[in-house]
Amino acid sequence: MYRTHTCGELRIEQVGQEVTLAGWIQTVRKFGSINFVDLRDRYGITQLLFSESLNARLDEQPLGREFVIQATGVVTERSSKNKNIPTGDIEITVSDFKILNAAKTPPFTIQDDTDGGDELRMKYRFLDLRRNSVRKNLELRYQVGRAARNYLHTAGFLDVETPFLINSTPEGARDFLVPSRMNPNQFYGLPQSPQTFKQLLMVSGYDRYYQIVKCFRDEDLRADRQPEFTQIDCEMSFVEQEDILNTFEDMLKHIFKEIKGIEFNEPFPRMTFDDAMEFYGNDKPDIRFDMKLVNLTGTVQGKGFKVFDEAELVVAINAKGCSEYTRKQLDELTDWVKRPQIGMSGLIYARYNTDGSIKSSVDKFFDEEQLKLWAQACKAEPGDLMLVLAGKEERTRKAASELRLEMGERLGLRNKNEFKPLWVIDFPLFEYSEEDNRWVARHHPFTSPKPEHIALMDDVSQYAKIKANAYDIVLNGTEIGGGSIRIFQRDLQQKMFAALGMSKEEAEHKFGFLMGAFEYGAPPHGGIAFGFDRLCSLLGGSESIRDFIAFPKNNSGRDVMLDAPSEIDQKQLDELRIKLVRE
Amino acid sequence: MYRTHTCGELRIEQVGQEVTLAGWIQTVRKFGSINFVDLRDRYGITQLLFSESLNARLDEQPLGREFVIQATGVVTERSSKNKNIPTGDIEITVSDFKILNAAKTPPFTIQDDTDGGDELRMKYRFLDLRRNSVRKNLELRYQVGRAARNYLHTAGFLDVETPFLINSTPEGARDFLVPSRMNPNQFYGLPQSPQTFKQLLMVSGYDRYYQIVKCFRDEDLRADRQPEFTQIDCEMSFVEQEDILNTFEDMLKHIFKEIKGIEFNEPFPRMTFDDAMEFYGNDKPDIRFDMKLVNLTGTVQGKGFKVFDEAELVVAINAKGCSEYTRKQLDELTDWVKRPQIGMSGLIYARYNTDGSIKSSVDKFFDEEQLKLWAQACKAEPGDLMLVLAGKEERTRKAASELRLEMGERLGLRNKNEFKPLWVIDFPLFEYSEEDNRWVARHHPFTSPKPEHIALMDDVSQYAKIKANAYDIVLNGTEIGGGSIRIFQRDLQQKMFAALGMSKEEAEHKFGFLMGAFEYGAPPHGGIAFGFDRLCSLLGGSESIRDFIAFPKNNSGRDVMLDAPSEIDQKQLDELRIKLVRE
Lengths: 583, 583
Description:
2 copies of one chain form a homodimer.
Chain A: E1 18-31, E2 34-41, E3 44-50, H1 55-60, E4 68-77, E5 90-101, H2 118-123, H3 125-128, H4 132-154, E6 158-159, E7 177-179, E8 187-189, H5 195-203, E9 208-216, E10 228-237, H6 241-260, E11 270-272, H7 273-280, E12 294-295, H8 297-300, H9 306-309, E13 313-319, H10 327-338, E14 348-352, E15 358-360, H11 368-378, E16 385-391, H12 393-410, E17 421-425, E18 430-433, E19 438-441, E20 470-475, E21 478-485, H13 490-499, H14 504-518, E22 525-531, H15 532-539, H16 570-576, E23 578-580
Parallel strand pairs in A: 3-5, 6-9, 11-17
Antiparallel strand pairs in A: 1-2, 1-4, 2-3, 4-5, 7-8, 9-10, 10-22, 12-13, 13-16, 14-15, 14-16, 17-20, 18-19, 20-21, 21-22
GO cellular component, one term (chains A, B): cytoplasm
Subcellular location (chains A, B): Cytoplasm
InterPro entries (chains A, B): Aa-tRNA-synt_II, aa-tRNA-synth_II, aa-tRNA-synth_II/BPL/LPL, Asp-tRNA-ligase_1, Asp-tRNA-ligase_1_N, Asp/Asn-tRNA-synth_IIb, AspRS_core, GAD-like_sf
């Protein structure tokens, strides 16, 4: 036995006991002739006081930071107590010790505020993981998973494992592929999600399925996207959208209560996709603050201001209490909307001064009476600042959405300790892909159109109007999950594939097994999948999912600690009957 | 809302209530003018009685097996109750119904004893999964996983997800490989186990880690091996072998209690590897029955019987109570040991008759006095039958082990409802691979030799004597888990890689990250991994792990339902910069 207790559990009650602890040396310091060590493990820190009789041994075998030692001694009451840590009332008067493993000086400090840069910490991820802040993230991740499992268990869901070596059926994102040695020239694909399998489980009568499962997408990585990521994947039979929303709203409430101690007594608000786009400019509104987008197009056009008159959309937000913004602040905001990521040509503003006057950057075209109409539309009051964008509809709406979030940030309205979930519902079934020059599934091809819109599928000119029984759950402006009621009839599924431009043969080749299954008694069903990494990062108050993944990859899909991926042996290539194409 | 209740929950108390059920039609039958349907879902079966007023509609829309329907009606007490099912006291007098989805006639019956062959059931796995017996297996799997998680949670283990896209480091089994598009000509490997990651987590101070996780091995598939399989993977810091054995013995006891209602009040027995080989002829003894192997070499040699005199090993088992075996039975057994899988040239027997006489098949060489010595060694008594094998040591021991199991089977001593766990300990560190013409790690290269044997690592002639701190947990003759105390010092790990014939460069290239980690304060640690599929199949009383996997692959690594793996598009190959080698 290496230890009788952990470094986090001894208290004043144990004074007088002989104990053995083991752990890492956080600090070594000497007061006069007495050596003190802070010994650390996952559970806490305990102070060790080395008896003077050990000084000779300590001179011979000096202790250093991150050494792993075992120490035996008596629990003693401290004269100067440390109220900041639970073990702060006691220390161990060490009578014997053993160095279990020495340590080189770590390349960065093992502390919450480390001096290590991103690259270095990723290379030495096993040291980065020692930091309290990182460990707390992974502990939170474990607790979130456990809370989800407990809720789903009580609600009658079964965790069923689905396979990882499946077929490649690229629809949307790119699959990772795995050459099969036993089936030469054939490949498995790694799943982007267990979508078809969970639907098959519904056909099999499993009624309520879940899995916390790795998924894979071979996409170019944007910041904070990982080639492998984890979903809480769920599916239910004999349900309508309402049943699913209620079930998983309850799951999230359970998680919030368990993890954050927050109780939601009201139902989560719901918003249609159309409203989200109109009032927030995007499909994942951050509703921690109001500042809705106001369409001023009708109000402002025809007054001779070319920028407005030529615009497809003129949209304003009301920055409450910002009428005193300085010229410099406004210039800064103007530069901000002109950045290529936002891409606007300028920003128009109108101050509603506290004295009741309104002054705008376009006074030449709009008199105070006109501006009062703006204020009315924006529900602006004296003290407020209206910010107006104009241009092509899509870009302008997107820019207004970004500007709203930026202003929310600047005004401190996006408190990461405040949680505002929102269901966004009634998504369009299709969206037009300019890139592929065809209609694609907005959610995925298994999503059911609203029954009353099925007839519109016969007429491509109506595609934009078709709504789906699809929904997203949004938390603080981030989508943390989404799902839909599924198609469960072969005919409709076939129609859907055809609408997406798939030939009958292609559809049969790729998804014949699923459509076949629908012919043997498929129940109505639907489900949802949560982005587990993202959910954890939001609950942990972080922007970055990497902080919540034990061994994440960088933006090139590399694990810099392992130096993976890497070249393989010719023998391995030969066995797989593949050849490299070198450039 | 599709239903007010499931098909498993209505009882006599609900008589008079109007309810709506939804599910699959198990059977339709007509008594006189009344139609009866057994409606099935995951939770049970409820009988529906269709009011005569519905007969016209039923004629129009006939119901068939596996149709999915929704039915509304009043709960009624049955006149003839069915005591075999929990809902057998009631039926629903249906006033309205709706066909939610029709069904083609399934290719096999959806019953415990189905008429479908293996191939057909795998092709239509979504129908096979509907069968009660299969669903019960997957429900048991879920319960076993949940029991393990609950135990490990209480014991302070953290579930930490480790990556799937890692480096290929073939050591032993072959890796599945994943070409990287973003890092051309480089490959990820899928993990054969999270071994190095869990060790890194120990270096990171996580103290107690677990994961129920998919692992991958690209090996030629023997019956009942799957290319992807699931492990309960665990690791602990600051532990010795004893701590691990105790912790996971408790976990198994918890699982047995939760799943089977069996309480083990005694500690699991432990046996050294050497004893297992000597007394059972293999390293995973089935101790549900005794019938130990008895070494007769010394007893029988030098009596002029060439078969014995030339043998490396003469070994007997005592088949208790079998002295009356007929000539035919003995011939059958002789044929059995002569099969190529067993490979012996013959079987010698000696009957200890109930009258006290002993007769053997080698009476020419051994008189009754001699045979009494055999009986003494075998602890045979009147009524017993001694079966003797002789030949090359390894083959003969293996054959005796197989014969013992076969006799146990024939004598009904291998009851699948009796559970006899056993720890096998003190495994050799190395074993000699004739194939590779070198010493290989018996467990894996991270396993620690027993400290007192480390010195032997300097002398290759001593390798066979080196024991490891490695252990297996065996249940009813099947290994369900194994692990070891790990090496945690860079020097020793380097020595181990060298002993396995790895150059310093190769070791550094493949496992530099781990040896590097050992230099920054690695704690003593060890762990274990359980074969989850196998554990579930044993608890479920089945020989086959496939019955406990939702979507298993066949012996060619194919999913016959999906028809995976499959050929991929040229575009995909081009993106990965690989070419196929066609034959």
